[in-house]
Amino acid sequence: MVKKKLNNPIYYREIVNRISKLSEKSLRKWGKMNVSQMLKHCDLVLQVALQKIELPRINFLFQTIGAVTKIEMYVFNNGIPRNMPTFQKLIVNFECDFDESKTNLLKTLEEFREACDDNSLPDHHRLFGNMTEKDWEFLEYKHLDHHLKQFNV
Question: Across the strands, what pairs with 124?
Fold first, then answer.
């Protein structure tokens, strides 16, 4: 089973193409966010990897759950469960401009790809624990894939 990663040019282009298919009228299959909010949320999550957003510390129980979830996603190559809780800083429950959110996400996605090429991603995540470049590339792909499926692309 192929484990898709964002730094692979084929899968990077796949994600960019799927984002380009979204419109302001794209409807969600689950969740609370509209398409503009989802784009902003995905942008914020990528900014964590770029160290532009620092997540708060969490307790040991949640750290353990996060580390186990990361391993499970690798072993089974499964996606992110629907309606999974997230850090407060990454929740987008305010109105967002669609074009601005889409443009910003694509820009941040390119910054992420450059950080992958430069091997400059952090070696730790508050939830998932120790991280390698491959961990970031895999988990960020899975996160984007999850939300793009949420909006039928």
Answer: 130
User: CA–CA separation, 100 vs 98, rounded Å?
Assistant: 6
Q: Does pLDDT of 81 surpass 90?
A: no
CA distance linking residue 29 with residue 152, whole number of Å: 7
Which residue, 30, 13, 29, is CA-closest to 21?
Answer: 13
The two structure tokens encoding residue 13? 């282009």
Single out the residue of 75, 89, 88 nearest to residue 138, CA to CA: 75
Asked whether 122 and 131 are in contact (CB, 8 A), the reply is yes
Q: What's the rounded mean pLDDT across residues 128-135?
A: 95
Percent over 90 (pLDDT), the chain: 84
- Compute and round to an integer the Cα radius of gyration of the chain: 15
C-alpha dihedral sign at 103, 81, 74, 65? positive
Residue 74 is predicted with a pLDDT of: 86
Per-residue tokens: 70: 């990361």
Backbone φ and ψ for 56, nearest 5 degrees, come out as -70, 160
